[in-house]
Amino acid sequence: MDEIKLNVELLRKRVPNLTVAAAAAGLRPATVSNLCTGKIPLARAEVRTLVALADLAECSVDELIIRGNTVEMLETGIKAIDFFAPLTLGSTIGFVARPGMGQLVLLAEIFHRMNERSYQTFFLKPMEDAIGLSDVTNAAEFICFSPNEVLENMLTVSKKPILLAADRQTVLSGEIDTLLEELKEKGIVPTTILVDLRGEAVDEQEPYGPLDTLLQFDADLVSRKIYPSINPLYSTSVLAEGGHLSKVHLQALQEAKKILRRYRELRFLGRDRVPESDKSTYHRGLRLEAYFSQPFFIAEPITKIQGAAVALQTTIKDVQRIMKGELDDVEIESLSYRGEIGG
C-alpha cells in the first residue's frame, strides 16, 4: 500500500491562517499541526477531520492526500539538526528563538555549508536590522530585497538545488506563500528557512503555520554557552515524526530523548541531590549535551576552533557509545565543541 500524507502545500496556499481557520471549524489546532508534520500519521486521522480540512481548502479529500513517499533528507553535518530534527529537500523550516539565541549564526552556517555543496543560497533581506544579520548576508550568494527580485534571480541561475531564507514578517504578509507558489509554477522548489528577527514566534502556538521542520532554540543552553542551542526535546521534523528514519536512527533518537528528558529534570535537583539510581542517566545526559555542541566554520576567526562537519551515521554511532556508557570516564570538556568522537 502506498504511503499517504497530507498535501500541506495545498493547505498553505488555500488556507493561509490555518490554525485560526481550523479552530473556527471545530478542529483542534494541535491535531491539524501534528497531521501536517506527520507526527500523527494520516491513516489515523478521523474522516470528519479530513472532510473539514478539505472544506477549508475548497478541494476534495482526494486532492488533500498525497500518495507515495518522496521525502529526502538534506544532511547538514550539524549533529543536533541531523540527529534530532533532520531537514528535508524542498521543505519549509521554521526557527523559533528570542533575539541573541544564535538563530542567524546557525542560518549563516547552513548557508556556508550548502555553498560548499554547490547549492544556490538566497536571502530575502528584511528591512529591519538585527545583530548577526551581517553573518547571513556574508554567507548568502544572492541578497534580494523583494520577492520579485528573488524570483528574477532564481530564473537566471543554473539548475542547482536552492536554499532560500526569509524573515517571519513575509509569512505574516503572505509574501512568502505567494513567492513559493510562483516559483513552483516555474518548476523551482527551494528548501525554505524562516527566521524571526523580532523573537515573537516564541509566544505563538503556530508561528509559521504548518512546517516540515521546526527548530526550537533553548534559553538554558544559551545561558550556559552551549551552541547550537537547539532544544532536542521540542525541535521536530516530518522525518523524525513521520516514520521516515532508519530503524537504527529512530531507536537512538528515542533513547537519547528519554535520557535527556530525565537529565533535564535531574539538573533542577542539583548535582549533589541526584539519586544513586539516576546517576548514570545524569552523567550520560551531560555527555550527550556536550557532544551536540559543535564548532562552526563561520565562527573560526572568533572562536579559534576549527569548524567540524559530522556525517549522520557517525553521529548515530557516537550517540550510541555515549548511551551505552562507553564514555562514562571521559571528561565533559573533551566532548564539547568538537566533531566526531573518534577512537
UniProtKB/TrEMBL annotation:
InterPro entries reported for this sequence: ATPase_a/bsu_AS (IPR020003), ATPase_alpha/beta_chains (IPR050053), ATPase_F1/V1_b/a_C (IPR024034), P-loop_NTPase (IPR027417)
Keyword Transcription regulation on entry: no
Molecular function as annotated in GO: ATP binding; proton-transporting ATP synthase activity, rotational mechanism
Signal peptide: none
Gene3D superfamilies: Bovine Mitochondrial F1-atpase, Atp Synthase Beta Chain, Chain D, domain 3, P-loop containing nucleotide triphosphate hydrolases
Keywords on record: ATP synthesis, ATP-binding, CF(1), Ion transport, Membrane, Nucleotide-binding, Translocase, Transport
SUPFAM superfamilies: C-terminal domain of alpha and beta subunits of F1 ATP synthase (SSF47917), P-loop containing nucleoside triphosphate hydrolases (SSF52540)
Listed GO CC annotations: proton-transporting ATP synthase complex
Coiled-coil segments: none
Subcellular location: Membrane
Similarity comment: family membership: Belongs to the ATPase alpha/beta chains family.
Protein known as: Uncharacterized protein
